[in-house]
Amino acid sequence: MSAVAENLPAQSPLLEARDLVAGYGAIEVLHGVSLSVLPGSITVLLGSNGAGKTSLMRTLAGLMAPWRGSIRFDGESLDRLAAHERVGRGIALVPEGRMIFPHLTVEETLRVGAYGAWARPHFAESLARAYALFPRLAERRRQSAGALSGGEQQMLAIARALMARPRLILLDEPTLGLAPKMARFVFDLARELRSAGLTLLLAEQDVRMSLAIADQGYVLENGRIVMAGAAGDLAADPRIRTSYLGL
Ligand SMILES: Nc1ncnc2c1ncn2[C@@H]1O[C@H](COP(=O)(O)OP(=O)(O)OP(=O)(O)O)[C@@H](O)[C@H]1O
Ligand SMILES: [Mg+2]
């Protein structure tokens, strides 16, 4: 390494969570979770059912208040910001289960995504971009969202998040229940969004596919990070191979 490279500061994370503790009622489910996400990367969050992936995503998005710990985004503290204010800073959540309102049309759903004051002026441009990315949604723009297939609803949930013009997308199990072809579409899309400069944090149970597209990963078990590293290293790790890849 050259002296110049050594003197460069390490790339600072876009998102940094420190020692997050959170739970429901009296039950603690995140026991001090720290993670950082580099700009322009895909970070995958692995963990089996009940590990705390959704709780962590919701805490990052501001939908759940942590009991302790802190979250910084682009160098600024998010701790006092409500969920909608975090959307305004550039964080969009694609929730587990998609959370699509069945009675809204496709286009009405996308309009909801662009509701924020910063996103609304760009609505037409964002809509054109969403339809270019998802031609199937363009064909179905006047159809009610509830009549879409599971895969189409997942596209709609992602498109709705993009309408907010985020810098970071939190994707909570986007391929759950999708046919392999549709799951592949979602993983390809994640790569495409990274190429376009977006940053992604992806909770996934498809360990093989998600590690194949990710730059780094974290493994959450019972509310604690038990492993972290470069995606390639995790994919080769014997513990991952036996516990998560069934090898
Ligand atoms: N609304 C809730 N009220 C009480 N406990 C909850 C609630 N939601 C989740 N939990 C508990 O918190 C823990 C973590 O759940 P969480 O949904 O965050 O896990 P997950 O990793 O997303 O799981 P999955 O892969 O099944 O989506 C579990 O023990 C779960 O039972
Ligand atoms: Mg979950």
Automatic annotation (TrEMBL):
GO molecular function, one term: ATP binding
Protein name: ABC transporter ATP-binding protein
UniProt domain ABC transporter: residue ranges: 15-247
Keyword Nucleotide-binding attached: yes
Originating organism: Hypericibacter terrae
InterPro entries: AAA+_ATPase, ABC_transporter-like_ATP-bd, ABC_transporter-like_CS, BCAA_Transport_ATP-bd_LivF, P-loop_NTPase
BP terms from Gene Ontology: L-amino acid transport
Entry's transmembrane regions: none
Keyword entries, A-Z: Amino-acid transport, ATP-binding, Nucleotide-binding, Transport
Similarity remark: Belongs to the ABC transporter superfamily.
PROSITE patterns with a match to the protein in the record: ABC_TRANSPORTER_1, ABC_TRANSPORTER_2
